[in-house]
């Protein structure tokens, strides 16, 4: 059986528990009266779920507990990267990976939240469709190979297209970058074969030009030699030929072969002249 002392102790315990609960409730109410908006954020104030005009800047703000709530919107630069497959002007399938940096206009965070939702809803409903549509629209104006050679121009046109599509939603495009182009294996092989053929053609052109230069040099050399020979023939006289012969003579008389063996040509001439004299006598 419970004693009278135990019965009298129960209300005291309830009083302590009630005080503790009251303190927690008071702290919760006090805490519910304040909201902190962090750096790079804007607060959207709602009363019974209805969005109030304007935004809450970073800092501490008062609100009615249980009645009002605050949705925090990130207004810093965010990145969305997607790979989009589209057909080029020459009907090649090209997968383009585009990285888009964007942010919400801080003053319009309330409008964005009310009409679209938070950042996750914004990416799904607005950002990705805008990137997809822009990539397809621009890619369709270029041949697949030109997408590579005119990469910066293509990037600029995609950026302009995305900027135009996001502007009505109070979004700002900070930059757009093409991180990759991916083509079908058949097209990649065709590009490689074309490059090899171009290199071979350039090499053949170089060899042909080189042969042409060598041929022209030989013609010039032949003409020079002919001109020199002509000048030499014009300047040579019988006296010069005789002088050159004397200069080359080694002092030995030429010999002839007769019935008596090898005889000096001069001796034969002398003998011939003697015989000729005797016959005359």
Explain this structure:
By secondary structure, the protein is of the alpha+beta class. Among the domains are: 4-74, no CATH class; 78-189, Tetrahydropterin Synthase, Chain A (2-Layer Sandwich), CATH 3.30.479.30. 56% of the residues lie in helices and 24% in strands. It is built from eight helices and ten strands. The chain has helices at 4-32, 109-115, 119-139, 144-149, 151-166, 185-235, 238-248, 265-280, and strands at residues 34-37, 41-47, 50-51, 59-62, 68-74, 78-87, 93-104, 171-183, 255-258, 261-264. The strands form four sheets. The protein has a three-stranded antiparallel beta sheet. Strand 6 (78-87) and strand 7 (93-104) form a beta hairpin. Residues 265-281 have low confidence and may be disordered.
Instruction: Please name the fourth-level CATH homologous superfamily of the domain at 78-189.
Output: Band 7 domain
Return the average pLDDT rounded to an integer.
80
Class from secondary-structure proportions:
alpha+beta
Largest sheet: 3 strands, antiparallel
Distance between the termini: 199 Å
Shape: rod-shaped
From the coordinates shown, what is the CATH architecture of the domain at 78-189?
A: 2-Layer Sandwich
Largest sheet, spatial ordering of strands: 3-2-5
Radius of gyration: 53 Å
* Percent helix: 55-70%
The sequence of SSEs as H and E is: HEEEEEEEHHHHEHHEEH
Counting DSSP H or I runs of 4 or more residues, the number of helices is: 8
CATH class of the domain at 78-189: Alpha Beta
Report the strand count.
10
Q: Could you tell me the CATH topology label of the domain at 78-189.
A: Tetrahydropterin Synthase, Chain A
Taken as a percent bin, the fraction of beta residues is 15-25%
Give the uncertain stretches in residue-range form.
265-281
């Amino acid at each position: 059986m419970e004693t009278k002392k135990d019965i009298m102790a129960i209300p005291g315990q309830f009083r302590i528990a009630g005080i503790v609960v009251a303190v927690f409730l008071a702290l919760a109410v006090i805490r519910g009266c304040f909201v902190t908006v962090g750096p790079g954020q804007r607060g959207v104030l709602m009363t019974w779920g209805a969005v109030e005009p304007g935004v809450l800047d970073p800092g501490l703000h008062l609100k009615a507990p249980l009645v009002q709530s605050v949705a925090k919107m990130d207004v810093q630069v965010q990145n969305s990267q997607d790979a989009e497959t589209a057909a080029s002007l020459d009907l090649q399938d090209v997968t383009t990976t585009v990285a888009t940096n964007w942010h919400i206009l801080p003053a319009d965070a309330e409008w964005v939240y009310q009409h679209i939702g938070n950042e996750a809803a914004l990416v799904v409903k607005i950002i990705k469709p805008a990137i997809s549509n822009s990539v397809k629209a621009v890619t369709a104006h270029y041949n697949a190979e030109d997408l590579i050679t005119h990469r910066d121009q293509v990037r600029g046109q995609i950026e302009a297209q995305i900027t135009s599509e996001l502007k009505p939603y109070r979004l700002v495009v900070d930059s757009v970058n093409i991180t990759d182009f991916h083509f079908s294996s058949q097209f990649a092989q065709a590009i490689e074969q074309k490059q090899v053929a171009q290199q071979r053609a350039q090499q053949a052109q170089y060899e042909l030009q080189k042969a042409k230069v060598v041929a022209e040099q030989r013609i010039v050399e032949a003409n020079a030699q002919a001109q020199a020979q002509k000048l030499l023939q014009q300047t040579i006289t019988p006296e010069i030929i005789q002088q050159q012969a004397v200069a080359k003579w080694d002092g030995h008389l030429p010999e002839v072969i007769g019935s008596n063996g090898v005889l000096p040509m001069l001796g034969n001439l002398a003998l011939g002249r003697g015989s000729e004299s005797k016959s005359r006598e």
